[in-house]
């Protein structure tokens, strides 16, 4: 075999190991890091040559080149030509001279920031994937029954409040001046909790509102009772159908 034939065969077996890049900025950052270039002072002649050489390799391997890669190649050539062209004899202060690479550098820095954030999120996602979340189990029927008995029937509580309104007349001003709340839920919760704790046994629902003449006070007390029931600090019992509702404190 002739020397030229062996050389041709050897060159035909030559392959390039090309990394996958997400876009032209990704490729540019790779070339800058690979050549240990200063991202704030990019040597345009060298980086442009390497970038175009990379595109040429892609063509040799019959790989499709996205339009954005070609646009970036044109941008690099344009910046390179601006830096190579002789400047006008007009004297311009250094601070006022615009660097043709400024916009490209800003794009690279932004892309680099997104890369760092993306890697951090991928790392967190990997750590989270190693944890297995246990699905919530259904509450056993016996516990559901106790839960319902302890908290009572909300509809029955509403009916009891409506029945209380029908029996008593509470004072409600026709006009109200908006200001500081006269009765707060926190205060009524503490007051009602102490009242139930001091009682020797269950307290009749209607007795909780004895001495209250203002509608706002009654509503706040009722909300306080619901809050205590929600916390498990109070329970209601109705021993007979349409009978009175009794409230007791739960230790």
Commentary on this structure:
With 251 residues, the protein is mainly alpha-helical. The protein contains 9 helices and 3 strands. It has helices spanning 3-12, 24-34, 44-60, 67-84, 102-129, 141-151, 154-167, 185-198, 215-231; strands spanning 203-204, 234-237, 246-249. A 3-stranded antiparallel beta sheet has the order 1-3-2. α2 (24-34) packs across α5 and α8 crosses α9 (215-231). The longest helix has 28 residues, at 102-129. The termini are far apart.
The secondary-structure element order is HHHHHHHHEHEE
Supply the number of helical segments. Answer: 9
Structural class: mainly alpha
Strand content: under 5%
* Sheet with most strands: strand arrangement: 1-3-2
Distance between the termini: 100 Å
Mean pLDDT: 77
Overall shape: rod-shaped
Unreliable stretches (pLDDT < 50, length at least 5) are 1-17, 145-152
A few lines on this structure:
By secondary structure, the protein is mainly alpha-helical. It is built from 9 helices and 3 strands, in the order H-H-H-H-H-H-H-H-E-H-E-E.
Spell out the key features of this protein:
3 strands, disordered N terminus, mainly alpha, single chain, 251 residues
């Amino acid at each position: 075999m002739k020397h030229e034939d062996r050389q041709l065969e050897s060159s035909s077996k030559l392959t390039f190991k090309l990394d996958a890049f997400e876009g032209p900025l990704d490729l540019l950052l790779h070339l800058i890091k690979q050549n240990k270039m200063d991202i704030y002072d990019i040597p345009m002649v060298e980086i442009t040559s390497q970038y175009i050489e990379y595109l040429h390799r892609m063509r040799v391997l019959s790989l499709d080149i996205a339009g954005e890669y070609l646009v970036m190649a044109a941008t690099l050539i344009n910046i390179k030509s601006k830096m190579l062209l002789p400047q006008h004899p007009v004297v311009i202060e250094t601070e006022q001279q615009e660097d043709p690479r400024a916009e490209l550098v800003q794009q690279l820095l932004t892309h680099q920031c997104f890369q760092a954030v993306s890697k951090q999120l991928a790392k967190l996602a990997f750590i989270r994937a190693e944890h297995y979340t246990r699905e919530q189990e259904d509450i056993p029927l016996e516990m559901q029954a106790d839960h319902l008995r302890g908290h009572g029937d909300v509809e029955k509580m509403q009916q009891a409040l409506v029945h209380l309104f029908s029996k008593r007349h509470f004072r409600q001003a026709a006009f109200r001046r908006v200001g500081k709340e006269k009765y707060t839920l926190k205060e009524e919760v503490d007051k009602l909790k102490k009242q139930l704790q001091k009682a020797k046994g269950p307290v009749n629902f209607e007795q909780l509102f004895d001495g209250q003449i203002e509608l706002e006070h009654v509503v706040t007390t009722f909300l306080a009772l619901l809050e205590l029931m929600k916390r498990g600090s109070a329970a209601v019992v109705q021993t007979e159908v349409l009978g009175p509702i009794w409230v007791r404190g739960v230790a």
